[in-house]
TrEMBL record:
InterPro entries found in the cross-reference section: Amidohydro-rel, Metal_Hydrolase
Protein name, as recorded: Amidohydrolase-related domain-containing protein
Residues annotated as domain Amidohydrolase-related: 158-368
One function term, GO molecular function aspect: hydrolase activity
Classification lineage: Eukaryota, Fungi, Dikarya, Basidiomycota, Agaricomycotina
Superkingdom in the source lineage: Eukaryota
Length: 406
């Protein structure tokens, strides 16, 4: 055996817990979104299909998909898309999911479009040895609660900001508490990063919330649409979630860093979260998506605060291979290896799970084996890191009580 042969067996074959993913599209909706979204966060109306095929991330993904679909090595991107469209959808899902060795998926099913276009979270159990669990997206939960409050106000013709705020907070608290008590729910997720940024206030101010509610009432009465992007309200939603989650021992995931252009990039750094992390020491924070390009800031928080964990996901397959290696190296620069988690951020297409797993295992092996060969780690230590990152840390953090099907 060479010095990393057993490390390779573990890194490529050990079962994994995908600590953050989203549902797959139904067969009828398999082409609802441009397939280029597999490798880019760009929006369809802002150059996604034109530019994404010319990225290093797409070239690498294309080579891997050519092998998956059993195409000629010289196949073009258009031929790759045509090949996957010609495959039976159930067979395509199995072909993509089977090699991943994902044992359990923790699924955020609050992504926009899921209810209309995607499968329910339990449907995904067919691909895993352990049952899929839910991550509740709190802003979506809050919007459903607030719609009920607003409809009641409009129907009664009584618009009272103080009363509506009290009613909203009470009902939101009940809804979050109910979710926290649900054994199917293992954690929460906030997209404050998208809505108002990660500079979340440590305290809520009632007067500001009431003013925001008045604006929301006027907009909703006209459009019958609701998207919470009012900082006083969004901050209150996060703070309420952090309090209840801390009491119930359920981690709270935060989108950080990498996203589409709906994000204000400078407000997507997890460094903005230091005050709320300090203010909620009993609540476990999970910084999602490697916080790219703010990975080092995330590593710093993970090393400094015992209640912070770092997920090294989504960069697979959105970055080039070298970019991914740099991210994993930065994660390991400072973050304790018992506090790093892995995810695919799989969504819509089964290929997102396939590439997210294949590339993560490849890069994790590259980085760890290089450290072993440089005598910075023993192979035993590297194997321990791989097992913790892929399975054990998520199993412990979310209290899943699983045994690896190894």
């Amino acid at each position: 055996m060479n010095t990393t042969e057993y490390l390779a067996r573990v890194t490529f074959g050990y079962p994994a817990i995908d600590n953050h993913a989203h549902p797959l599209l139904t067969a009828a909706n398999r082409n609802a979104f441009p397939f280029e979204g597999l490798v880019s966060e760009a929006n369809p109306d802002q150059g996604l299909t034109t530019n994404a095929p010319f990225t290093l991330a797409c070239y690498r993904a294309m080579a891997q998909l050519i092998r998956l679909y059993r195409l000629n090595a010289e196949a073009t991107w258009e031929e790759v898309k045509a090949a996957r469209s010609s495959l039976d959808y159930d067979q395509l899902c199995v072909r993509c999911m089977e090699p991943t060795r994902i044992q359990c998926i923790l699924m955020d099913d609050g992504l926009g479009g899921v209810s209309e276009l995607a499968e329910g979270y339990k449907w995904h159990d067919r691909f895993t040895a352990s049952r899929t669990k839910r991550i509740v997206r709190v802003e979506i939960l809050a919007e459903s609660v607030l719609v009920g409050v607003l409809e009641g106000m409009i129907t009664s013709g009584m618009v009272s900001p103080p009363h509506s705020v009290t009613l909203f907070i009470d009902r939101l608290t009940e809804a979050i508490q109910e979710a926290a008590n649900n054994p199917e729910v293992v954690g929460f997720k906030s997209i404050a990063c998208y809505r108002t940024g990660l500079d979340i206030a440590v305290t809520s101010h009632r007067e500001e919330i009431e003013r925001s509610i008045m604006g929301i009432v006027l907009r909703y009465a006209t459009t019958k649409k609701l998207r919470l992007a009012d900082k006083p309200i969004n901050d209150m939603i996060v703070l309420t979630t952090l309090r209840i989650a801390g009491q119930c021992g359920k981690p709270v995931q935060f989108h950080t860093g990498l996203g589409d252009n709906d994000i204000t990039l400078k407000l997507s750094s997890p460094s903005h979260m230091q005050p709320i992390i300090k203010a909620h020491p009993q609540t476990k924070f999970v910084l999602l998506h490697s916080s790219y390009p703010y990975t080092r800031e995330a590593g710093y928080l993970t090393a400094t605060y015992p209640n912070v964990y770092l997920d090294f996901g989504e960069v697979f397959p959105f970055l080039s291979a070298e970019g991914q290696r740099n991210v994993v190296r930065q994660v390991l620069e400072l973050a304790p290896t018992n506090k790093i988690l892995w995810s695919t951020d799989g969504h819509w297409w089964p290929e997102s799970y396939y590439l997210g797993t294949l590339q993560a295992r490849e890069i994790l092996y590259d980085v760890l084996s290089a450290s072993v060969k440089a005598h910075e780690l023993t192979e035993v230590q590297a194997i321990g890191i791989a097992k913790r990152a892929l399975f054990e840390n998520s199993n412990n953090l979310y209290n899943l009580g699983l045994k690896p099907q190894w």
